[in-house]
C-alpha cells in the first residue's frame, strides 16, 4: 500500500490521466489555510508588488503545534513535476503556496524557515513528507524557495524554527506588513 505522495515519489511514477496532474494553466488552486496564492503576493526581483497576501485567510486555531522544534540543515525545493499531486496530508500540492515537506514534523504544523546570514525568511505549512535525498532536511514549495531566493541555487542551508498557531499568526502578519512596505 502506498501512502506517501508529492515529493515522496519520483516524477512519472504515477499514472496521470492525460497529464491533468501537471496542468497548471487556468487551474484554480486551493492554497493552504492562511496564505492564499503566495507566489502572486511575492514579487519577482524588480517587479511591482501585489498585496494579495493581505487577503489571506486566518490560520486555524486547531492543529498541531511545533513550537519547540529547531533544526539546521540543507533545504531544496520542488515544483512543477509534483504540482497537482496529492501530498501526505491529502491536499493537492500547489507549487505557488507556502508549504514544505519534512520527514517528522506533524502535518499541518507551521515553521519559520530562514537563510543564515541574510534577512530572508518565510513561514510554511508542513503538508508533505520528505525530502528523501541524502543530506536534506526540508523540501520547500517553489513559492517558498522564491521568497528565500533559492529558486535558482536549488539548495541552501536553512534554519527551521517550529511555531505555535499563535506564533504562526504573528509571523503571517509580519509577512503581510513586509510585503506592503518593501519596495
TrEMBL record:
<dbReference type="InterPro" id="IPR036908">
    <property type="entry name" value="RlpA-like_sf"/>
</dbReference>
<dbReference type="InterPro" id="IPR009009">
    <property type="entry name" value="RlpA-like_DPBB"/>
</dbReference>
<feature type="domain" description="RlpA-like protein double-psi beta-barrel">
    <location>
        <begin position="71"/>
        <end position="159"/>
    </location>
</feature>
<dbReference type="Pfam" id="PF03330">
    <property type="entry name" value="DPBB_1"/>
</dbReference>
<keyword id="KW-0449">Lipoprotein</keyword>
<comment type="similarity">
    <text>Belongs to the RlpA family.</text>
</comment>
<keyword id="KW-0961">Cell wall biogenesis/degradation</keyword>
<protein>
    <recommendedName>
        <fullName>Endolytic peptidoglycan transglycosylase RlpA</fullName>
        <ecNumber>4.2.2.-</ecNumber>
    </recommendedName>
</protein>
<dbReference type="InterPro" id="IPR012997">
    <property type="entry name" value="RplA"/>
</dbReference>
<comment type="function">
    <text>Lytic transglycosylase with a strong preference for naked glycan strands that lack stem peptides.</text>
</comment>
<dbReference type="InterPro" id="IPR034718">
    <property type="entry name" value="RlpA"/>
</dbReference>
<keyword id="KW-0456">Lyase</keyword>
Amino acid at each position: 500500500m502506498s501512502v506517501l505522495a508529492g515529493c515522496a515519489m519520483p516524477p512519472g511514477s504515477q499514472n496521470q490521466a492525460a497529464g491533468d496532474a501537471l496542468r497548471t494553466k487556468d487551474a484554480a488552486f486551493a492554497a493552504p489555510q492562511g496564505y492564499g496564492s503566495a507566489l502572486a503576493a511575492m514579487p519577482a526581483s524588480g517587479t511591482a508588488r501585489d498585496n494579495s497576501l493581505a487577503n489571506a485567510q486566518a490560520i486555524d486555531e486547531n492543529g498541531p503545534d511545533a513550537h519547540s522544534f529547531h533544526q539546521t540543515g540543507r533545504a531544496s525545493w520542488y515544483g512543477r513535476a509534483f504540482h497537482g499531486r496529492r501530498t501526505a496530508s491529502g491536499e493537492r500540492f500547489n507549487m505557488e503556496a507556502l508549504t514544505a515537506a519534512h520527514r517528522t514534523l506533524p502535518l499541518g504544523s507551521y515553521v519559520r524557515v530562514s537563510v543564515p546570514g541574510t534577512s530572508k525568511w518565510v513561514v510554511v505549512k508542513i503538508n508533505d513528507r520528505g525530502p528523501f535525498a541524502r543530506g536534506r532536511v526540508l523540501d520547500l514549495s517553489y513559492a517558498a524557495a522564491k521568497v528565500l531566493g533559492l529558486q535558482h541555487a536549488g539548495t541552501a542551508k536553512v534554519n527551521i524554527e517550529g511555531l505555535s498557531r499563535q506564533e504562526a499568526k504573528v509571523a503571517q502578519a509580519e509577512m503581510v506588513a513586509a510585503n506592503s512596505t518593501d519596495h
